[in-house]
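Exercise 7b. Backbone tokens:
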């Protein structure tokens, strides 16, 4: 069974142009710099990788982005 986390954190970052994997690499660097735990980062990574397409993956990242 997949681990479930209730992450309420938001990061401040600028998503680069490109697909979800380009954005994910940038997101991970920003999350690490802003003190996210390895488990939190891994959870978001899993969500993005398992998304059906780039649009869905980018939407996951948008959910964790401060507006």
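Sequence design result:
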């Amino acid at each position: 069974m997949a681990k479930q986390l209730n992450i309420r954190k938001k990061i401040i970052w600028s998503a680069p142009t490109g697909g979800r994997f380009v954005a994910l690499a940038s997101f991970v660097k920003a999350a690490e710099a802003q003190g996210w735990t390895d488990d939190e980062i891994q959870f978001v990574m899993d969500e993005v990788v398992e998304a059906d397409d780039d649009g869905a993956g980018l939407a996951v990242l948008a959910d964790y982005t401060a507006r």
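Instructor comment: Helices lie at 20-33, 38-50, 54-63. Residues 20-33 form the longest helix (14 residues).
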